[in-house]
Design a protein that fits this description.
Layout (H helix, E strand, L loop, with lengths): L5 H21 L2 E5 L3 E6 L5 E5 L4 E5 L5 E10 L2 E8 L5 E10 L2 E7 L8 E3 L5 E2 L5 E5 L6 E4 L9 E3 L10 E6 L5 E6 L5 E8 L2 E9 L9 E8 L3 H15 L6 H7 L11 E3 L4 H9 L6 E3 L5 H9 L3 E3 L1 E2 L3 E4 L6 E2 L1 H4 L10 E4 L5 E4 L2 H18 L4 E4 L9 E3 L2 E3 L1 H18 L3 E5 L11 E3 L28 H7 L8 H6 L4 E3 L14 H14 L4 E3 L11 H18 L4 E6 L6 E6 L4 E5 L5 E5 L2 E14 L2 E8 L2 E7 L3 E6 L3 E3 L2 E3 L2 E6 L5 E8 L3 E4 H5 L6 E7 L5 E10 L2 E4 L2 E11 L1
Parallel strand pairs: 19-20, 19-33, 20-21, 22-27, 23-24, 27-30, 30-31, 31-32
Antiparallel strand pairs: 1-2, 2-3, 3-4, 4-10, 5-6, 6-7, 7-8, 8-18, 9-17, 11-12, 11-14, 13-16, 14-15, 15-18, 16-17, 23-26, 25-26, 28-29, 34-35, 35-36, 36-38, 37-38, 38-39, 39-40, 40-41, 41-44, 42-43, 43-46, 44-45, 45-50, 46-49, 47-48, 47-50
Helix pairs in contact: 7-8, 11-12
Length: 744
Amino acid sequence: MHKFNIKKFQTLIVTFLICFVAKAQNQPAIKISNSQLSFAVNSESGQFSVQDKKSKRSWVSLPYKKIKFLSASAVSPSQLKMSLIDSTSGINFSSLVTLENDSSLSFVLSTSQKAMAIDQLSFPQAMKTNYEKGFLVFNYRSGGVQIAQNDITYPAKRMMVYDNIGLDMPWVGVYDAVKGDGMMVLANTPYDVEIDFSEDKGLMWPNVAWASSLRQFSYARKVSYIFTSGGNYVSLAKAYRNYLKQIDDFKTLAQKAIAKPRVNWLKGSAVVWGSSGLKFAREAKAMGVHTAIIMGSKFKKDEIKQMTDLGFLNSSYENLEGTREGSMGHMKDTMAIAAYHTVEGKPIIGWVTKTGVEYYSRSSVRSLQAAPSYLPTYINDVPLTGLFLDVTPAFLIEDFHPLHTFNREADKQYKNKIKEYIGKDLGLVLGGEHGKAWNSSILEYSEGTMTGSFFWEDGNKPGYLDPPKDTTYMSANFKKYGFNYRNRIPLWQLVFNDCVSSTWYWGDSSDWFYAVTPTISDLKDNFNMLYGSMPLIWADKKGYGWDRNRSRFVQTIRNVSNFQKRVSFSELLSHEFLNEEHTLQHSRFAGGGQAFVNFGEKAIKHTIGKESISLAPRGFYLTAPGFLQSKTIDELGVVTKIVTDSLISVQTDQLRKVGPISTNGTVTIFKQDNGIWRIVVENTLATTEIDVKAIVKSKNLKFYTLSQVDEDGSKGKVLSKNLPANLIKIPAATGIMLFDINIE
């Protein structure tokens, strides 16, 4: 048996410690810091970490996978340089790490091997921290979604920035719901990058993965990490809004309206497809719809001018990209010359109809030539005041055509020049399909932003505009992530509400599911109110139908647009969930507007100001200066009301008195431009009584004249002249009846 030598053991321990310390001293961490952030990289392993002194949060990078770290060295007190190799491509590259300000850290990747291709170059790798209850927030072809970090079943873990189905803003945020602090991964060079989710111990963390530009590394790539100390996803959205202002890529609707006054007509507006044009405009105006975007290109020239005189924007569908063979013009071109080409040299097919007809994708540089060749003549023949541009605003693409080869950034520039031509040179109010952040300073409104992710999945055919026949029309992913009020957040509106009016996709409109599940339309109206956005409605058989469900059609506009008119040009300052079920939500706008919305099927009592308000199932309580709108419940049942100086509306299924109106049904009274008050009575079950003096707010009023009005707003017969100014009594009526009060 060997005898244990304690002195020799102690000598070994000391020798080991000396060697360990010497090694540590020879391989120190390289550090940079400012007043809020401290960044350090281990000079041996390349693992890096961030200390956020404000939130007292520590971050550490996940292990390298396909990247080999070589070295790191300090450049200045706020910069260091890392040298690395991409194992997939073999490219040697460097990363300049900079503390740009107190809360922002950036990585700029560059290489001398710019001609080499890269694929999924994932650097910097994801960072993790010790969140108690972490959430990821982003815009995956939607207005915004938040998912729990441990929801590893989320279907899209690789999201290309600015792809057709990809990220609408070039960032993903992560935050802790307990402390409210967060971090944003922002792709400053957003044209050839995706943001992925890396899983670590059951939690997902965001990181960038760089793609080639025209099959090359090509240019320096930049990503920033922005840290927030509180405010959850709202602070992250505001950080991006501030970033856009810093790079001078931010323009509000109010600014756009200075050069184009009709942009102001978006206040209180709704997008209407499938209408009869002038007939619809007259009838809608008669019921209190003061403005809308009426879509259509087959209306007569004089009818369009009359619709404009009534205060409606007249717009038409335009697709500069989807084309078939023919002379350059509307959806036609010489495809051998005009189409985008793949890297293999084949023309790209953009759209295939149900019958198999193929439309090629016309290159943006060719579309820029095509637009002036026919649009001015078209606008002269059809005097539109707006234009809806499909496809072009929705995504960026590379073009390998030998006559016009360009990258995604150039595609953006060409497409924005097209939009500037339509908006500035032609002076049209410009809408676009699912606008992205890269065109937010040019578009005035965006169709599709309100629609959630995965609406395009199997079971749904929105592109072909086939109305749903049953509830299976919604895919499981769309139900969970796209339309679910528990997961939706107004991330886009927190950045862009006062810059781009947003609405639903035309294959997911306010009334798209009305025939199958009517309550879905209630929920969509609620989303519009909460977000301050526009409804989109079908006047034909695809939705409510103007002649089929006129009262419900007007209800959406009345409930949504009156509030939207007051907040649509205002910044959305905040959004919050007020209960664990997320059924009760609250939003607040600059200028004093705010919305409380109940998405649940049960009433919710909530203290608003000094009042205890019982919000009805799918109810709301909206306020703005000089404005109150609510859907509440009491012992009599549910009542909806809107009150302003020039409008009062009551909807109730029990006989009750609300202010100057006693009714059982729906009654709306509004002041017209000529000073005459219009009464709209819908489906009342008892005699309606109206206090005229209280409506016109005149104690000295003595007489008035009551006239019946035809559905198109033209005057019908005078019912009574010189009536004493007390109560108007209108018998119960099925359907819709219109009256005018002419004050003597």
